[in-house]
Write a structure and sequence with these properties.
The complex is a heterotrimer of chains A (about 375), B (about 550) and C (about 400).
Chain A lengths: L2 H6 L5 H33 L17 E5 L4 E7 L13 E6 L2 E6 L5 E5 L6 E2 L4 E6 L4 H8 L5 H32 L5 H12 L7 H14 L8 H11 L1 H14 L2 H9 L4 H12 L1 H17 L2 H6 L8 H10 L6 H21 L1 H14 L1
Antiparallel strand pairs in A: 1-7, 2-3, 2-6, 3-4, 5-7
Helix pairs in contact in A: 2-14, 3-14, 4-7, 4-8, 4-11, 4-13, 5-8, 8-15, 9-10, 11-15, 13-14
Chain B lengths: L1 H10 L19 H35 L3 H19 L4 H28 L11 H8 L3 E2 L6 E9 L4 E7 L5 E5 L4 E3 L12 E2 L2 E3 L2 H12 L11 E2 L4 E3 L2 E2 L1 E4 L4 E4 L5 E5 L4 E3 L17 H8 L1 H35 L8 H8 L7 H12 L5 H8 L11 H30 L2 H9 L4 H29 L2 H7 L20 H9 L8 H34 L2
Chain C lengths: L2 H18 L8 E5 L4 H15 L3 E5 L2 H11 L8 E5 L3 H6 L3 E2 L12 H6 L1 E2 L2 E2 L1 E7 L2 E5 L10 H14 L4 E3 L6 H10 L5 E4 L2 E7 L4 H15 L9 H9 L3 E6 L4 H7 L3 E4 L12 E10 L5 H12 L2 H10 L7 H5 L4 H9 L4 E2 L6 H16 L5 H19 L1
Parallel strand pairs in C: 1-2, 1-3, 9-12, 14-15
Antiparallel strand pairs in C: 3-14, 4-14, 5-6, 7-14, 8-12, 8-13, 10-11
Helix pairs in contact in C: 2-12, 7-8, 8-16, 15-16
Classes of the chains: A alpha+beta (about 375), B alpha+beta (about 550), C alpha/beta (about 400).
């Protein structure tokens, strides 16, 4: 055995091992605490039941059952809402005639109609089997993605577009300011910094009315930034997210040694070249963090978006998802859960994929103030 | 030294008092290309400025002619600022800041100013419109003067596009009249009750669709010539309607032509009032001074709840910061142990709550904590215990909110703390170990102080964030359960100031009271700004030292 | 690249946006529909456009958001021409001058007088009614075969069911919902405002009347005797009923689809009477209103009266969102036991008061109910407080 090997297999005392065990148990409990709600929402999304409170953590197995007629009659027509193919429809309408009265029979929303036992024009007796319906784990996702009145993919696209454009603009514009605050000394600098910090903590919830009126007026002359447009929403997000990011970035810029740009300036580079070619690459960690935070912040924002966007086609994801749970008497938890999972994915991927960079950027910024 | 200083001044725009160390070596100036470049830069600056200015002037003109003075002035201030900054060489440093500054003035400072203004007004239900808007609503209102006649109308149009009305007097057995823009006469060629002719005197009858499209234009016209002035008043009705209201600007009053009553503008109440104390159908927004702020003290149904809400807001923010930080730090410390297997997997799983949108998480927790059917309650019940009333009892509701917020917030501090812990030099621990410190002493005397220096500002930022953490309260239980003494201005035990203000502004109680809600917002702002400023003062000296390293 | 050129770039970008983004000024009508009415309104809008050549844009706004959003958007000129809403918003909207009068003269005979009257505020007609809905008594027919005659019987059945272990609960009701519990109060003789020939009398507050307190005490007794759980909201109430754990609830026509889907055998009946006489649920009338800021008022009126008010359009509105129709012909053509149950329950219904103060009445009342349901206050104390609060509010307003 070489010495190296011995070091690798350093022996631990029983107390240390017990301590490790305790720590592991704590971590496992913590992980359960952390992901239990997530597991629960995943199971809700796979559960065809429409109510949030009835579901169990393990969704019931898909099952097929037969739907019977409640009275004798004739099948007049089979229709599927929103022009979907009949055999795949999550909801089917049978137009029937019972006792001389035309009636619409709607299939339950939580399953696929599989096997229609009747031809159009055929008569049926009371208690005769009409069709089979089978539930499916993915039905909530299917409903989510295929309801034309709730253009989920459009919302997702809007959210991603608004959030990414906001993030890029916030990073670029606040990096300019941060560079200036970090590298130049001008009169009023300190006051301006404090002022930016202070106006930033104003709770803008109540300023909603002002923002609404302003966007409306701006929209009369520059429709691109008007109410009900994603452009206007971006404008509001960018303007609102500036201050704190300038501070975060300035802290990081300060940590870049000034010798670097000074020697460049002395060598004849102008400030733009110094900034763009030297400093900008060096502060990349904080740019990434600010970008991510702005992205996630505007992706998740919904109070302003709900007021400023009226057209369903211009809604962001959060406004759309909220419409599933805020509907007064028509809660649709399963579909909401499916939407929530897809909606949480972009941020989840970004955070989990870039967690090291986030940690680096956050703490360095934090250390430097 | 002098020569160097001069050269440095040339290398960089004037006005920037950079604190620089001496450059390590001298450099050569390249005069020719630089002059051309600066000329170009100057050209670009002017061209850019001219375009921006032209655009801004157009907007200012447009807003001013719409009567939106506050916005016109705001844009004007921004334009002026951008121009000064770009034209004066000594403000070069500000050129980098101007874009951010312009956006902030428009989207942060202007709304703040607006909120401050609203907090001094009676803006709210009953006084929702500006005086101009009220007058605009009064404008088109008409009435039928005594002896006035009402007809049913059909729209006709001649080749040159002029409109005419075919009128049916239903009270007089369906007698027909024809009114052009200049003339009004009974129709003699078509018997009463007969079908309307497709053409009459060169005018063609418009179809339903055509007349609907034209109705807005035709409604603005008076038919029948000077002595008749027949106008379209409704979907079917036309007649000699007269303007109901008239604004007399020299008396600042509205005259009701129908009753002859004069309604004077009363700015104390924001109403148009006549001598008998009667008012017009709605009031207008008017400045009422400090009344909203006084009601914090004067009104029992606000003072009591407000004090409790304030206390809870502080408690909630402190508890949230403390719990999230403590748990985050705890996990970060656990993950420091090098022997933990699958460390990265653990960390990844533990930060999962962070990226999930708050709205979604809170909705999930709301369902899980439901005392009858929620999954948490079911688990508690399976141990033979009665699940706590998370939504009913004030204490439990508060606990639930802090718990949910803990779930939402600890990953952030976990990440921050692991970063900051890694930055603490290892040799300091080794030194402490040599001194015989146990883990608690190391934590208390070394880890925590070092950590707090790094994370302190974030703790305060987290405090101010939670102070205004509207989404969690609103999405979890809308501030419930209700307070007994809140009375007509609704307030709940878990309401924090911002959710209380939101409820005042956007529903519940007596409906909207933007004035009072804005006043509360201003108070919140003052407090949060105070905390922020205090934090800034605390860390300021420390920033100076770090900068000069 | 340098800073100046960034400025130039931004200026050009701004210019391009300003020049190329041409305002698409819509000529037609704008309608705000709710979640349930928007799909059918979109269809109707297409029909209207085909017939009259006027385009109608329908925006979906969550029903509970319509009023607040309209109050922000309307004065700013961003509101709709027509909005769907509940009649009890009238006071609030009219006192702010946000609604335009509409003249129902041509169609008034087609609609239920009570539904039409609900949309009258201070003598002015502000809306075209679509549906007049109310809650009814719904029971699980497997657990409760006969409709209980009065509330004493409801209690006896509840006790029996729990004692026999047939169900976890008998009758249950939400924690903090004045709307659903109003019929319990009226059956015990309670009222909100005294009713005179001229409508509700805000001077006569009945929240702390003996009847109202008796009704509240009735609910309280379920809580104190352990016959009813706390933490019941709308969803919980329905889930308990739909899983057979509770046998009787009070709910409205909007909930029928989900109960049917659950497969529970149920029936809809009139509400049980009490010592104060028959139970009177609140009538809520849903209808269309025209914005005072609309620049197309005549178009809007035409759309509503010549098109929406027709029997065909009203019938399609009904089938898209089945609630007792306000249109008499559509109402009479219904052949539906469930709807008949709701109509019967609403026979003696009272229109919800629409005075602007109603918002705070609801708030005070909901608090009182919640406090009773959670056992924090006794019925008498809670409802006396609510009565005083409402009286103070109305006095302060006069």
């Amino acid at each position: 055995m070489s010495e190296r090997h011995v070091i690798k297999h350093k022996r631990y005392s029983a107390a240390q091992n017990a301590q490790l065990l305790v720590q592991l148990i704590i971590l496992v409990v913590a992980v359960i605490f952390a992901i239990f709600p997530v597991i629960w929402v995943v199971s809700a999304s796979l559960n065809p039941s429409q109510s949030m409170v009835t579901q169990s953590v393990i969704p019931p197995l898909p099952e097929t059952r037969t739907v019977f007629a409640e009275g004798a009659g004739t099948l007049l027509r089979i229709a599927s809402p929103a022009g979907r193919r009949v055999e795949r429809s999550a909801e089917l309408i049978l137009l029937v005639e019972i006792d001389g009265v035309e009636k619409e029979l709607r299939s339950p929303k939580n399953g696929y109609v599989r096997n229609i036992r009747l031809e159009v024009g055929e008569s049926f007796a009371a208690d005769e089997a009409l069709y089979d319906i089978s539930s499916s784990y993915l039905i909530n996702f299917d409903i989510l993605l295929s309801t034309p009145r709730r253009p989920f993919l459009r919302w997702l696209f809007n959210s991603l577009a608004v959030a990414s454009i906001t993030a890029v603009l916030v990073v670029l514009i606040s990096a300019f300011s941060a560079y200036s605050f970090s590298r130049f000394r001008f009169s009023g600098r300190r006051h301006l910094l404090v002022l930016i910090l202070l106006v930033q903590v104003f709770p803008n919830l109540l300023a909603m009315v002002a923002i609404f009126l302003m966007l409306q007026q701006i929209g009369n002359h520059i429709p691109f930034f008007g109410l009900n447009t994603n452009g206007g929403l971006i404008l509001v997000y960018v303007g609102g997210g500036m201050g704190i990011n300038i501070w975060l970035m300035k802290g990081f810029f300060d940590s870049v040694p000034r010798d670097i740009d000074e020697s460049a300036l002395v060598d004849g580079a102008n400030h733009w070249q110094t900034y763009w070619l030297l400093i900008f690459p060096l502060v990349r960690p904080v740019l990434v963090v600010v970008g991510i935070l702005s992205f996630v912040g505007s992706y998740n924002e919904f109070v302003l978006a709900r007021i400023l966007l009226r057209d369903k086609d211009s809604w962001t994801l959060m406004v759309g998802l909220w419409s599933y749970v805020s509907a007064s008497f028509a809660l649709d938890w399963g579909v909401f859960a499916a939407g929530a999972i897809i909606g949480a994915l972009p941020c989840l991927v970004i955070y989990l994929g870039l967690q090291d960079q986030i940690v680096g950027g956050l703490t360095q910024g934090a250390v430097k103030g | 030294m002098h020569a160097l200083a001069a050269r440095r001044a040339a290398a960089r725009p004037p006005g920037c008092n950079e604190t620089m160390t001496e450059p390590p070596q001298a450099h050569k100036t390249k005069r020719g290309p630089r002059a051309a470049a600066s000329l170009f830069r100057l050209g670009a600056t002017y061209l850019g400025l001219i375009i921006v200015d032209a655009f801004a002037l157009y907007l200012i003109y447009a807003f001013a002619s719409d009567g939106i003075w506050e916005l016109a002035i705001t844009i004007g201030v921004i334009t002026l600022m951008v121009n000064i900054i770009n034209l004066r060489a000594d403000l070069y440093a500000l050129r980098w800041i101007a874009p951010a500054l312009s956006l902030m003035i428009l989207l942060v400072v202007f709304p703040i100013a607006y909120t401050v203004y609203v907090s001094f007004t009676n803006y709210g239900d009953g006084n929702l419109l500006t005086k101009t808007q009220v007058l605009k609503l009064l404008g088109p209102q008409t009435y039928l003067p005594e002896g006035g006649k009402v007809y049913r109308w059909n729209l006709y149009q001649n080749a040159s596009g002029e409109f005419a009305l075919w009128l049916t007097d239903e009270d007089a057995g369906g007698a027909y009249y024809f009114a052009t823009l200049h003339n009004f006469e009974p129709v003699t060629t078509v018997a009463a009750g007969a079908d309307l002719p497709g053409e009459y005197q060169g005018y063609r009858q418009l179809s339903r669709g055509e007349s609907l499209k034209a109705v807005n234009a035709a409604q603005a016209m008076a038919f029948g010539g000077e002595s008749f002035k027949i106008g379209i008043a409704g979907r079917r009705e036309a007649g000699e309607f007269a303007k109901r209201y008239q604004f007399l600007s020299e008396q600042d009053a509205v005259l009701d032509n129908k009753s002859g009553a004069l309604f004077r503008a009363n700015y104390a109440t924001g109403q148009f009032e006549n001598d008998e104390g009667g008012t017009l159908f709605t009031g207008f927004i008017s400045a009422i001074g400090l009344e909203n702020y006084q009601s914090f003290i004067d009104r029992d149904d606000i003072r009591g709840p407000l004090a409790r809400i304030f206390a809870w807001t502080i408690a909630f923010s402190l508890a949230s910061v403390f719990t999230t930080f403590a748990l985050g730090l705890f996990f970060a410390l656990l993950l420091q142990n090098k022997r933990i297997p699958f460390k990265r997997a653990f960390r990844t799983l533990l930060i999962i709550p962070w990226p999930i949108p708050g709205l979604i998480s809170v909705a999930i927790w709301r369902g899980m904590l439901n005392s009858n059917l929620g999954v948490v309650s079911n688990i508690i019940r399976s141990f033979g215990l009665e699940p706590p009333p998370f939504f009913i009892d004030a204490g439990w509701a508060k606990l639930a909110i802090i718990l949910v917020n803990l779930w939402l917030g600890y990953p952030y501090f976990m990440l921050v703390c692991s970063g900051a812990l890694a930055a603490i030099p290892r040799d300091m621990y080794e030194a402490a170990e040599v001194d015989g410190a146990n883990w608690w002493q190391k934590f208390r005397d070394l880890t925590l102080p070092m950590l707090l220096v790094a994370v302190g500002p974030l703790l305060i930022a987290s405090f101010t964030y939670n102070f205004n953490n509207f989404i969690i309260i609103e999405a979890f239980n809308q501030g419930g359960p209700p307070m007994v003494e809140a009375g007509t201005v609704p307030a709940g035990h878990t309401d924090i100031l911002i959710s209380y203000a939101f409820r005042l502004a956007f529903g519940g109680g007596r409906g909207s009271d933007f004035g009072l809600a804005s006043a509360i917002t201003i108070i919140i702002f003052l407090m949060v700004a105070g905390v922020t400023l205090a934090q800034y003062r605390l860390t300021k000296g420390w920033e100076e030292t770090s900068e000069n390293v | 690249m340098n800073l100046s050129r960034i400025y130039l770039l931004m200026a050009v970008l701004l210019l391009l946006l300003g020049v190329f983004a041409v305002s698409a000024q819509d000529e037609g009508l704008t309608v705000w529909g709710s979640e349930s009415s928007t799909p059918i309104l979109e269809e109707l809008a297409l029909q209207f456009e085909e017939e009259f050549g006027i385009s109608v844009t329908v925006h979906e706004v969550a029903f509970l958001d319509i009023r607040d959003q309209f109050k922000t958007a309307g004065p700013a000129g961003e509101g709709p021409d027509i909005l769907i809403g509940a009649h009890d918003w009238l006071g609030d909207l009219a006192v702010n001058g946000l609604l335009a009068e509409i003249n129902l003269a041509d169609v008034e005979e087609d609609f239920l007088p009570s539904a039409r009257a609900a949309f009258v505020y201070e003598g002015v007609q502000y809306g075209l009614p679509v549906a007049a809905e109310n809650v009814a008594f719904i029971r699980n027919t497997d657990l409760v075969p006969e409709n209980p005659a009065d509330w004493e019987e409801v209690r006896a059945i509840s006790e029996q069911l729990i004692a026999d272990g047939d169900a976890s609960y008998g009758w249950i009701i939400q924690d903090s919902d004045p709307y659903h519990s109003f019929s319990v109060l009226t059956a015990h003789g309670g009222y909100v405002f005294g009713l005179t020939d001229a409508g509700y009398d805000p001077g006569d507050v009945g929240m702390d009347s003996d009847g109202a307190i008796a009704g509240a005490s009735y609910i309280e007794s379920y809580v104190s005797d352990g016959l009813m759980p706390t933490g019941v909201d709308y969803d919980v109430m329905h889930t308990l009923f739909e899983t057979g754990e509770a046998a009787m609830i009070i709910t409205g026509p909007w909930a029928i689809p989900r109960i049917e889907e659950s497969g529970v055998n149920f029936t809809v009946d009139g509400l049980p009477a009490g010592p104060g006489g028959s139970a009177k649920p609140f009538l809520g009338v849903v209808g269309f209103m025209v914005s005072a800021f609309s620049e197309n008022k005549i178009l809007a009126e035409t759309f509503l009266l010549d098109f929406i008010a027709s029997e065909e359009a009203m019938a399609s509105l009904y089938s898209a969102d089945p609630r007792p129709p306000a249109h008499i012909a559509v109402r009479e053509s219904l052949d539906d036991e469930i709807m008949a149950g709701f109509v019967a329950a609403g026979a003696e219904g009272l229109a919800m008061p629409a005075i602007p103060e109603m918002a705070s009445v609801w708030a005070a009342w909901a608090n009182a109910i919640t406090l009773v349901r959670t056992g924090e206050l006794g019925a008498e104390e809670a409802f006396s407080t609510a009565g005083e609060q409402i009286r103070a509010l109305i006095a302060g307003d006069a």
